[in-house]
């Protein structure tokens, strides 16, 4: 399980009058389940990009269990992300031409970590997400099924944190609900910290804490009823 501590973070882009993201201090406890909300352009994707190390930050600290990834080189950030962060994106980022199983295993293969145990876990995860045809080609799957493959892939290396950026936004209501349930159940079962960026009020209401961004700043940070009950 990973805890996140952010300090003095300031992300600016050329042409923007104010920072896309400015966070003085934010702590997310290991094992907690947090929703990141906010209007379009409020900095949600920038948040995901910097805390996962996809984007470099020039100012501030981003500590995962005390390790400041802001000070890492790009290749070290890539290795850290592959080993520790399970990323689920709105647009899945799966590879057509490959099967469901091959897609789940691809990042592990690229990292030289596709061991027999990983292959066994990939089969088990596909089973958990209720996909019973591991050999089915990605391009023949429905969008809800594709997102379930992406979830299985994100969990393969037992990440300490699952970060999902609008995981239900491109799905119909029913598939979106099923995918939301699945991410929550799997994060619970695996004991991963969970951070979900979403406009989906129902999904956000099932998490413990809701952080709202406005113009790149935290405008609200509240424990939800689900969090009070936990
Ligand atoms: N690479 C970039 N160069 C310039 N401006 C950028 C860049 N990336 C993001 N921005 C700007 O930073 C601000 C925050 O963008 P961000 O994508 O984080 O918002 P968001 O909350 O994820 O929005 P949405 O819900 O529409 O995806 C916006 O004003 C956006 O135009």
From TrEMBL:
Alphabetical UniProt keywords: ATP-binding, Nucleotide-binding
Xref: InterPro entries: AAA+_ATPase, ABC_transporter-like_ATP-bd, ABC_transpr_LolD-like, P-loop_NTPase
PROSITE patterns to which the protein is assigned, alphabetical: ABC_TRANSPORTER_2 (PS50893)
The keyword Calcium belongs to this UniProt entry's keyword annotation: no
Residues spanning the signal sequence: none
A GO MF term: transmembrane transporter activity
Pfam families for the chain: ABC_tran (PF00005)
GO cellular-component term (any): plasma membrane
Top-rank taxon, per record: Bacteria
Domain ABC transporter: from-to ranges: 6-229
Protein name: ABC transporter, ATP-binding protein
Organism phylogeny: Bacteria, Pseudomonadati, Pseudomonadota, Alphaproteobacteria, Hyphomicrobiales
